[in-house]
Design a protein that fits this description.
By secondary structure, this protein is mainly β. It contains no helices and eleven strands. Strands 2, 4, 5, 6, 9, 10 and 11 form a seven-stranded mixed beta sheet that branches. Strands 1-3-8-7 form a four-stranded antiparallel beta sheet, with no helix packed on it.
Length: 122
C-alpha cells in the first residue's frame, strides 16, 4: 500500500488549503486514517483522524478550522484547512492503519505518505 499526499503550498494567514491523500495498492476494507504534522526537530503530532466508520477527532489547536473527510470508494482522505495561521506551518503527513478505530499513537499506523509542506505567511 502506498499513500500519496498533495495539496500543500504557500498561503497567507487567514487563507485556506485542501490536502488530499490517495491510497494505492492492496485494497483493505476497514481502515482508519489520519493527518499528522511535523515541525523541524519535533516529533509528529496529531492534526486529525477519522475511523473507518467516519468518526472524527481533532487536535485542540485546529478544532473549528480543519475538517477531515474520507472517500472510501476513491480510497482518499482530505484535510480542509481554513483560517490558517503561521503556526500551522509544517510538513503534513497522511497515515493509514488496518483496523476501524483511531490510532492512539503514530506508531500504530501501518502506512505513511511522503509529506507535503504547508507554509503560512503572516
Amino acid at each position: 500500500v502506498q499513500l500519496q499526499a498533495c495539496g500543500g503550498g504557500l498561503v497567507q494567514a487567514g487563507g485556506s488549503l485542501r490536502l488530499s491523500c490517495v491510497a494505492s495498492g492492496r485494497i483493505f476494507v476497514n481502515h482508519a486514517m489520519g493527518w499528522y504534522r511535523q515541525y523541524p526537530e519535533k516529533e509528529r503530532e496529531l492534526v486529525a483522524r477519522v475511523s473507518s466508520g467516519g468518526v472524527t477527532n481533532y487536535a485542540e489547536n485546529v478544532k473549528g478550522r480543519f475538517t477531515i473527510s474520507g472517500d472510501n470508494a476513491k480510497k482518499m482522505v482530505y484535510l480542509e484547512m481554513n483560517n490558517l495561521k503561521p503556526e500551522d506551518t509544517a510538513v503534513y503527513y497522511c497515515a493509514a492503519r488496518h483496523g476501524s478505530s483511531w490510532a492512539r499513537t503514530p506508531g500504530e499506523y501501518d502506512y505513511w505518505g511522503q509529506g507535503t509542506q504547508v507554509t503560512v505567511s503572516s
